[in-house]
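Example 3.2
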Amino acid sequence: MKKAKFFLIGLIPGLILVFFILNKKGASCSGYLPNSRVIAETLSKEFRYSEDVKNGMNTYKINEKFIKDSIITKGKVDFDRSHAQKKPCPDYVLTYPEKNPSYEITYEKCEETVTLNSLKKLRNLPQKNN
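Structure, written as C-alpha cells:
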C-alpha cells in the first residue's frame, strides 16, 4: 500500500505538469486523425477554382477567404464518397459544417495544387436581420 501511495504522489503532479507544458505549446492529438491530415495538406497547397466553383461563389455570395477559413478548415471529409487512394490526384468530398451541412465541396488534391471542382449549397441558411 505504501508503494501505491508513493507512486500516486509522483504520478499525479507529473501528469499535471506535463498537461500544462503541452497545453502552453498548443500540442494536440487531433492533427493525427485522417480528417485533420487531409485538411492540413489541402490548405498547404495552391488553390485553383473551376468555373462551376467561381459561379457558385458568385451565386452564394461567398469569397475565397470563407472557403479556406470556414468551409475547408472546419469541414468534414466524407471518406465514403471520396477517392483518397486515386492516383495521381485523390479527390475528396467535404461538407461544412460538420453537423447539418450547408455546403458541399468536391476537390482534387494533387502534389502542388488543389483544384476545387464543385460547390453546392445543401440547404438555406437562416437570414440575419440587421
